[in-house]
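Exercise 7. Given the encoded structure of a 620-residue chain, write a plausible sequence.
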């Protein structure tokens, strides 16, 4: 049965298996069957709200055949049932299930690395935990999920709260009317089954970590509250801060106050019919955010009884010809790619300690830029990048060959793009939105991605748009002429000379022909090496071979006139089920400059020397 200390719910659920009880209480049949499932929202700046953490131990039940959702005839488990206060006597109970007798998993965290029996598991898993709550008058409550991979259904006190698809973006389910005084319980069904029509699709080069991989909490807000905003510097006038604030539930004519005390800004504007107030305010002597001076200003927003604060840096990023300009100055991006793989323990990265370790290595390397591949990372990454002055490329997992000809797949990609941008729109560190990685050059793909590019510009016209493109070769020449390049502000290109083709020394003699007069970032290059494996530089898998790749790549990169950045693949070794070589890979992609246990390889120091001494790349 579903366990709750509430006597009311104990009476209702006695004798029922938890999954049947949940679905019965949800009223999945009768007149309620035709209702659309509640849609989640996304509360901006949720980490600055009043949060009641639900992190910690959650009971779990592994359900690979989805028995809790479907009968043996593959019908929805609640079909034919309808109940008000008590289940009907003829209810077909699932007596094999009992959360109270089930083991626990830590949240946040993937299930794969917490239990050996779940290491390769892909399918449905049910989470449950009790929590106390005292409802407050004039207060709305949301259950916040930082990320759950891949599809999720949320119930609170056996009332369905919302559904969500997408494994790397946050969502919030309103549960105000589902809560009661005393003990409550939440159940979250998470299914990480890879799907043909998913984003990403079935095949990737990273581990499909399942579960509630980021924080879960309750978020309290007033009845009318600020749910979204955008505050940024005007590109044409650096003394003007522009933006808007949206107030959920507000009536036209209400007021919103914006204040930036250290910048001498205080303004009040009126809410329009769409619940939005627009701002244009002037300030003098504003310090612009940059890697050298990552100045953050406290920004205060108040409307009615709701008040929220954020730390925002003000800067301008733009592309002009083949240059990338930050605050009007040419910029070269000395970067590295990072996966959201946890150092040392492995699994999905989620903690501040994970972030500090990864960024600690990146800063030691000498970077001013990181590519957060291949999906939106935990918000702690972009918050920390803001504080440290590290520029960020942030990406949606439109990866390899998704089903580009299906409108429903485009809709999923658009949802994830919107959620990524909405969460991180006011992070100064984020300068590039990426819409894809290594996708095939087909008309359907190009139209799909051009639609995402247009969506990104509509959602956030203040940033640059990119994608990591495949390149083609003719002899000793690499050609960048993907038609998607027409729509991008900055070109990203991936190549693996010395690993997947040719020899490391062939890179130094390679020329580049680029069809677009736009900035180019070499968004991936590199090769595998197992830390501690040494030998001649011609022997694959050795540190010496990987070092040779980097030495020759640096020679080539310095010969590309419009190169404006680089993010070699990758900072740290990460798990991948397609990397199988026993004794070397052992389910790890070994292209990291650092091993998963924090050991630096020879190539780390080669790149570090190039970055620290500015021996690679030019800003103009």
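Solution.
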């Amino acid at each position: 049965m579903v366990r709750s200390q509430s006597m009311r719910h104990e009476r209702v659920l006695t004798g029922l298996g938890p999954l049947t009880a949940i679905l019965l209480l949800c009223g999945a049949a009768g007149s309620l069957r035709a209702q659309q499932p509640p849609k989640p929202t996304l509360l901006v700046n949720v980490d600055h709200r009043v949060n009641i953490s639900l992190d910690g131990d959650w009971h779990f039940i592994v359900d690979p055949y989805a028995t809790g959702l479907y009968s043996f005839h593959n019908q929805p488990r609640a079909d034919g049932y309808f109940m008000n206060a008590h289940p009907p006597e003829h209810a077909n109970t699932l007596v094999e299930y009992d959360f109270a007798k089930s083991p626990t998993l830590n949240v946040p965290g993937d299930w794969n690395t917490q239990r050996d029996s779940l290491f390769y598991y892909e399918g449905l898993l049910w989470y449950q935990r009790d929590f106390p709550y005292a409802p407050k008058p004039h207060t709305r409550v949301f259950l916040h999920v930082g990320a759950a991979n891949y599809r999720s259904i949320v119930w609170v006190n056996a009332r369905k709260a919302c559904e969500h698809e997408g494994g790397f973006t946050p969502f919030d389910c309103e549960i105000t009317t589902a809560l009661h005084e005393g003990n409550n319980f939440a159940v979250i069904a998470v299914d990480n089954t890879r799907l043909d029509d998913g984003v990403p699709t079935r095949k990737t080069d990273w581990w499909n970590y399942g579960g509630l991989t980021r924080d879960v909490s309750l978020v309290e807000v007033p009845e009318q509250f600020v749910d979204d905003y955008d505050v940024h510097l005007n590109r044409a006038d650096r003394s003007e801060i522009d933006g808007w604030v949206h107030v959920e539930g507000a009536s036209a004519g209400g007021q919103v106050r914006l204040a930036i005390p250290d910048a001498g800004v205080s303004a009040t504007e009126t809410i329009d019919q769409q619940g939005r107030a627009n701002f244009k305010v002037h300030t003098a002597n504003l310090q612009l955010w940059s890697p050298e001076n990552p100045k953050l200003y406290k920004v205060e927003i108040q409307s009615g009884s709701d008040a929220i604060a954020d730390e925002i840096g003000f800067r301008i990023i733009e592309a002009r010809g083949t240059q990338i300009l930050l605050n009007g100055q040419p910029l070269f991006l000395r970067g590295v790619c990072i996966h959201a793989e946890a150092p040392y323990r492995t699994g999905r990265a989620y903690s501040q300690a994970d972030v500090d370790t990864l960024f600690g290595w990146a800063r030691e390397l000498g970077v001013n830029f990181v590519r957060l591949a291949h999906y939106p990372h935990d918000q702690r990454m972009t918050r920390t990048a803001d504080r440290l002055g590290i520029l960020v490329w942030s990406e949606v997992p439109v990866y390899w060959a998704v089903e580009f000809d299906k409108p429903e797949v485009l809709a999923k990609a658009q949802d994830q793009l919107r959620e990524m941008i909405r969460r991180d729109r006011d992070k100064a560190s984020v300068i590039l939105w990426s819409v894809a990685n290594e996708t095939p050059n087909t008309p359907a793909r190009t139209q799909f991605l051009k639609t995402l590019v247009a969506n990104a510009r509509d959602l956030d016209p203040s940033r640059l748009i990119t994608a990591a493109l495949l390149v083609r070769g003719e002899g000793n020449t690499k050609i960048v002429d993907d038609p998607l390049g027409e729509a991008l502000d900055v070109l990203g290109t991936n190549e693996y000379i010395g690993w997947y083709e040719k020899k490391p020394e062939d890179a130094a003699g390679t020329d580049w022909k680029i069809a677009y007069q736009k900035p180019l970032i070499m968004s991936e290059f590199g090769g595998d090496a197992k830390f501690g494996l040494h030998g001649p530089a011609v022997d694959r898998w050795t540190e010496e071979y990987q070092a040779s790749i980097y030495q020759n790549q640096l020679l080539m990169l310095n010969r590309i006139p419009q190169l404006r950045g680089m993010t070699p693949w990758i900072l740290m070794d990460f798990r991948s089920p397609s990397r199988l070589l026993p004794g070397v890979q052992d389910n790890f992609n070994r292209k990291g400059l650092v091993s998963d246990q924090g050991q630096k390889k020879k190539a780390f120091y080669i790149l570090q020397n190039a970055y620290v001494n500015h021996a690679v790349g030019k800003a103009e």
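Remark. Residues 407-424 form the longest helix (18 residues). Students should compare their own answers with the one above.
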